[in-house]
Write a structure and sequence with these properties.
This protein is an alpha/beta fold. The chain has one domain: Alpha-Beta Barrel (TIM Barrel). The chain is built from 8 helices and 4 strands.
Amino acid sequence: MGGFADANLGAEKLWPFYQKCCDLNVPILVHDTASDRDGHPNPALVGIEQLYLEVDNNALPFLLAFPFRYIVDMGSLILRGALKEFPKLRVCFVEGSAAFVPWLMDRLDMDPAAKKRLGKHPREFFNQIWVSAFAAENSLKYACDYWKDHNLTVGSDYPHGDPSATWNSTQGTVNMIKEMEGVSHADKEKILGTNAMRLFGMA
């Protein structure tokens, strides 16, 4: 995606790239960042500089930047018509958690002109979006309940030791999902493997 850092994901100048991904039948994995390579706030995250003023909690940019940016990216892909234009495009957002997805579905459906412009409700385009959940995310069960045919996967953030890392916990990432209460066995199987297999065309 080099050279497109100033573009949101729905921008039409990215569409030739999306066409190539569809032609090759490969997914896109999106991994954002709270800061640039020099440690300055990511300019794409409007207002993120306010979090850097919290000197006693420097985890705030990390904790909040990913889901905030992904909300913008998903909304852009859907409302600007990229997913409609490329119905075979598959996009996975990693390390952003999943609890915000039900809220975002409702919020995007509030656009009064979206269905007429896109041909269906914005939430229906989430069949092209995958979301990497956090194994310690207790609200994951609510995302599963709301997003019935979900494309949720799980990440361990190996080999990092940041707040998203679960591979180094006493349970381990897989067991954390397997032992999660309120999530069905079928949903756990999808989160732990089946959905990722579909993402990568392995199913």
